[in-house]
Write a structure and sequence with these properties.
With 336 residues, the protein is α/β, with parallel strands linked by helices. The chain has a single domain, classed as UDP-N-acetylmuramoyl-L-alanine:D-glutamate ligase (3-Layer(aba) Sandwich), CATH 3.40.1190.20. 35% of the residues lie in helices and 27% in strands. The protein has eleven helices and 13 strands. The relative contact order is 0.15.
Length: 336
């Protein structure tokens, strides 16, 4: 860990100048919280007595929330329905300060909703409502108009792929071309079963499973020391050929992060997590923090180290979560 508290404070002090567009799959995460005291007489399943319910923006929306929580300014671009769930989702985003002017709404679109039933801090069940055949809307003039307006004045763009249909190749090309013309950084958080041409991306942040899946390789050595892991190094080399990124950041769960810059030796950052309750949304925190730091003048290693600390904080929280500059500074001041 080379990032000092003073340097982190300097970098984060410029987050307020960052305006980031997040393009991707917008969804609503609902949580039904309860307790289990008995097994159903109808089937061998637990009966959950509901104690509370809540909803939060999920998917690409959570990246926007992370940006806001860290002191930056975010705008999201995607599609939602004109249903009550769509109203609920956009309402949450607006309250958090996220700009939703680039969101296309249409009665033919089904707002994506993931409902998690949680009892005694244990997820029992997840129910998904979604429709991924949305090319008709994503490839429309109306969506491209919103995308182009959304790109105006941005200092960075994040492509957040949850495999639900927004990140079509045409959308990706429009974003990367605009970033190249404006000289602003672009980030890519991939989905392992969705192949896209993102050559020229500034950085990508796959997790280990996504890295091996996209590379077409079997992960045979998940517990190997990262820098000595020949299988991981092979996957990294393949991704660098496929995506041609300036930087690659692979999240490794309890093993931390693996970094590879163009024509640079790989580096390994050990995890900063002190306890882990829920890894949901940790990747969103990583790409949001990394992009904010890069757009604020940090080099990539500094950005990754800051993201590593941020991710360690959110996995200690239950459910889709965010962190703040104050929490990050507090974690940096605490040295194990």
């Amino acid at each position: 860990m080379t990032l000092t508290t003073t340097r982190a404070r300097d970098i984060m002090g410029r987050f307020d100048e960052c305006r980031l567009l997040v393009v991707g799959d917008l969804m609503l995460d609902r949580y039904v919280m309860g307790k289990v005291d008995r097994i159903s007489p109808e089937a061998p399943v637990p009966v959950v007595q509901v104690l509370s319910e809540r909803s939060v923006p999920g998917g690409a929306c959570n990246v926007g929330l992370n940006i806001q929580a860290l002191g930056g300014h975010s705008r999201v671009c995607g599609v939602v329905g004109t249903c009550g769930h769509g109203d609920e989702l956009l309402g949450h985003l607006e309250v958090a300060g996220v700009d939703v002017s680039s969101v296309l709404r249409d009665p033919g679109i089904s707002t994506i909703v993931k409902t998690r039933v949680v009892a005694d801090r244990q997820q029992m069940l997840r129910v998904d409502r979604e429709r991924t055949d949305i090319s008709e809307w994503v490839e429309s003039d109306s969506f491209y108009e919103r995308l182009h307006r959304g790109l105006d004045g941005m200092t960075g763009v994040i492509l957040e792929d949850y495999g639900k249909g927004v990140l079509q190749q045409g959308v990706v090309k429009q974003v990367l071309d605009a970033c190249a013309r404006s000289g602003i950084p672009s980030g890519y958080d991939p989905k392992d079963n969705h192949e896209l041409d993102v050559r020229g991306i500034t950085f990508a942040t796959p997790n280990r499973k996504e890295a091996f899946t996209v590379a077409g390789l079997r992960d045979r050595t998940p517990d190997e020391e990262p820098l000595m892991d020949t299988n991981l190094n092979e996957a990294v080399a393949t991704l660098c050929r496929l995506w041609e990124p300036e930087h690659l950041l692979i999240t490794l769960g309890p093993q931390g992060m693996y970094l590879k810059g163009r024509e640079k030796e790989p580096a390994h950052l050990t995890t900063r997590a002190r306890e882990v309750f829920d890894v949901s949304g940790a990747g969103d925190t990583v790409i949001a923090t990394t992009m904010l730091a890069l757009a604020s003048g940090a080099d990539f290693v500094e950005a990754a180290e800051l993201a590593n600390v941020a991710a360690g904080l959110v996995v200690a929280k239950l459910g889709t979560a965010t962190t703040t500059q104050e929490e990050i500074l507090g974690a940096l001041e605490w040295q194990p």
